Structures are given as C-alpha cells and as structure tokens.
C-alpha cells in the first residue's frame, strides 16, 4: 500500500513565528476561518483572507509545493461545486463558496504543518477535559481523532491502488471492480485496527 496524503499538510519542523505561536491561538484561527466561511458574503473578502493565509503558510518555510499538495485532493470537488453554484446562483456566489472552502483547508493545513500531531492531540485532550464531569473521556476522543487521521490516507491510498489496477485491466469504468476491492480492504483495515485496540485493552469501555 503506497502512502497518500489527504487534504492537510504534514508537519514541517521549523522555528518560524507560526511554529512558535501557541496552539490555542492556532485552534482559534482554524475555528475563526470556519466561522468566516459562514459569515462572509463577498468573494473579494474571501480571496483576501485566502491570500493572507497563503502568505502565512509560506512564512512557515513549508513551501508552496506542500500547500498545493494539500489542496490538490479537493480540486476536482471544488470544480464541480463551483460549476454547479455558478449555474444555480451565479459566478460571485460560486467564487465565494469555493474560496471559503479553500480558506478552511489552508487554515487547517497551517495548523498541521507547524504543529506536531502529538501536540495537536494533547491539545484536543486539554480542550475536552472540562467535559469529563459529563462522562466524556478526553483520551478516547483524541484516540478517535488519531485513528481517523490515520485511516483516511489509508483508504484514499487503497482507492488509488485499486483504480490503477482496474485501469491496467481495462476495467476503470466498472463500478464493481472499483468499489468491491476498496470495501474489502477497508473492512480488513477496520478489523485489524479493532483487534489492535482490543489487545491493548482499548476496545471496550471501562466498567
């Protein structure tokens, strides 16, 4: 199984201002960009926010290619969304929607490119700790996110491998040749993950 990234840029060690920014501020940046995507109604504002985030990303030293790689997986989806919204609501609305999605992706990539994943998960545990009195388990919540982040690239890689195999056999237009192998691989991966968690006593809730 070859490796595949998915949406967000991987961590790049560095000593930039963004690297040294407290994790809470980065979290607020991502949340703020998510709110902006709902509140902004002018595509020019969305474009300005996206340009600012892009400049911040380049200041981290991660490089433009890494940012392009983070955005590339959603490019086709954005084209489809943009064309549909253009047809339904016009070009300005289509541009605003597409740009706002890119704002969220770039903001999240700015977080993951400048913060080690373990530190992000530790931050998630800290944020969820106040909910422990309501029965929440912050550690399990962070573990769930970690598994999700590991699983998505694996499934994306499985689909890419199956697609290449089907294309080599002239079956790229056969849905069964694409869906069934990915489904079987995904189920097997889920079972292996579940068995690994159970072996470490993490599969069942504590009494």
Automatic annotation (TrEMBL):
Q: Report the subcellular localization.
A: Membrane
Tell whether Transmembrane helix is among the UniProt keywords: yes
Entries under CDD domains matching the protein: EcfT (cd16914)
Does the record's keyword annotation contain Transmembrane? yes
Sorted keywords for this record are: Membrane, Transmembrane, Transmembrane helix
Supply the name of the protein.
Cobalt transporter
- TM stretches of this protein: 27-58, 70-87, 93-113
């Amino acid at each position: 199984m070859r490796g595949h990234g998915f949406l967000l840029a991987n961590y790049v060690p560095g000593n930039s201002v963004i690297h040294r920014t407290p994790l809470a501020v980065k979290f607020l940046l991502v949340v703020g960009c998510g709110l902006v995507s709902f509140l902004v109604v002018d595509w020019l504002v969305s474009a300005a926010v996206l340009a600012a985030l892009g400049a911040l990303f380049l200041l981290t030293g991660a490089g433009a290619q890494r940012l392009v790689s983070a955005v590339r997986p959603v490019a086709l989806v954005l084209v489809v969304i943009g064309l549909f919204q253009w047809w339904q609501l016009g070009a300005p609305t289509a541009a605003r929607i597409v740009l706002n999605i890119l704002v969220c992706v770039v903001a999240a990539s700015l977080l993951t490119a400048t913060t080690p994943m373990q530190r992000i998960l530790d931050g998630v545990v800290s944020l969820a700790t106040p909910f422990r009195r309501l029965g929440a388990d912050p550690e399990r919540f962070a573990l769930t996110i970690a598994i999700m982040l590991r699983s998505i690239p694996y499934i994306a890689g499985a689909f890419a491998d199956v697609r290449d195999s089907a294309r080599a056999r002239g079956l790229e237009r056969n849905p069964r040749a694409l869906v069934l192998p990915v489904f079987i691989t995904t189920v097997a991966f889920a079972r292996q993950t579940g068995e690994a968690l159970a072996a470490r006593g993490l599969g069942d809730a504590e009494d």
